[in-house]
Design goal:
Helix content is 34%, strand content 26%. By secondary structure, the protein is an alpha+beta fold. The strands form three sheets. It has a six-stranded mixed sheet, with helices on one face. A five-stranded antiparallel sheet has the order 8-9-2-1-10. Strands 12-13 form a two-stranded antiparallel sheet.
């Protein structure tokens, strides 16, 4: 069955003759698909939804065939938030709470993620077709900011030296966001014939940010992309591109689970088998179950390649 993407839309646009670009995103079907595997407290759901919108906005500008993985390692009520999105806007996300965590609906980012000041924000750029020896690029910064948008803005300025403004909102039905970026001088900007002066660039950037700051969270939650674009920038000369469509997509596989078990080591896997009889692993993102019995695990450590060891067997239920 074909997924309805009519409400999952990312719209890129540029300000005419200025080194300023923008994006608006609305994710509803994919966001509900992400939530369907878990029941998150309201405050955690909002944070994860904002990260989902932000990941789509940043992934739309990837210059390589690969993925952005955004992670927040928290020291509060939430241990981990993870969102992965590739250049085709296929995405997945999950959150892990601390055991026994009681999360108030109005919990702040500090309460959830940075109670002791040790929270960390990590972005990994992971090319799909790596050359030999190539490692994913990873940037790690402290959690600086009272909300997810400010955390990411600080990361982009600190790690990418790029002025970025974000407005994000999410509830149980939709995750939406607006991104504005002031690009470096002499950037090659798709669709532009000429570039404005540095002073004109700064004026356009300042004006665009001021317009963005008029956007209230409730308006962002309840207004579709096309209407928001028209409402915010109706006096500006902008150029829009063909819309893109984010979708839910999980990349888990039996082979990847087998690789994970091999990394744990034969001794630990055999110990777990002794206690449990069979190892059952559920994907944190999509909930799919992978079962490994004693024969499967023996093959993991006997074979030359994990791919040989984790070929599906007819006796295993997934």
């Amino acid at each position: 069955m074909t997924t309805d993407t009519s409400k999952d839309t990312l719209q890129k646009f540029i300000f005419d003759n200025a080194a300023v670009r923008g994006e608006l995103v609305e994710i509803s079907n994919a966001w509900r698909e992400i939530q369907s595997r878990h029941v998150y407290p309201k405050a955690v759901r909002a944070l994860l939804g904002e990260m989902v919108a932000a990941a789509a906005l940043l992934s739309a500008n990837l210059k390589f065939n690969g993925s952005i993985v955004m992670q927040i390692h928290g020291d509060g009520l939430v241990k981990l938030l993870v969102v992965e999105c590739d250049a085709n806007l296929r995405m997945r996300a999950t959150a892990k709470l601390r055991e026994g965590a009681d999360v108030p609906d109005d919990a702040s980012v500090a309460q959830l993620l940075n109670q002791h000041g040790h929270g960390r924000f990590v972005i990994t750029l992971d090319p799909q077709d790596k050359v030999p020896g190539q490692q994913p690029y990873q940037g790690v910064v402290p959690l600086v900011g009272a909300d997810i948008a400010t955390v990411i803005e600080n990361y982009m300025l600190r790690s990418e030296q790029m002025d970025t403004k974000l407005w994000l909102a999410a509830d149980e039905n939709v995750a939406r966001g607006l991104l504005l970026q002031k690009l470096p001088r002499n950037s090659s900007i798709e669709g532009q014939v000429k570039q404005a002066s540095e002073e004109e660039d700064l004026e356009t950037w300042t004006r665009a940010v001021m317009l963005g700051q008029t956007l209230k969270q409730e308006e962002l939650l309840t207004t579709d992309v096309e209407t928001l674009l028209r409402r915010l920038f109706w006096e500006e000369t902008i150029r829009v591109f063909d819309p893109l469509h984010p979708v839910f997509h999980c990349t888990c596989s039996r082979e990847k689970v087998g690789n994970m078990l091999r990394m744990l080591g034969k001794e630990e896997v055999e110990s777990a088998l002794h206690d449990l009889g069979e190892l059952g692993i559920n994907c944190d993102f999509c909930g799919k179950h992978y079962g490994f019995d004693a024969v499967d695990c023996a093959q993991l450590f006997a074979s030359d390649t994990t791919a040989d060891a984790v070929a599906p067997a007819s006796s295993i239920k997934h």
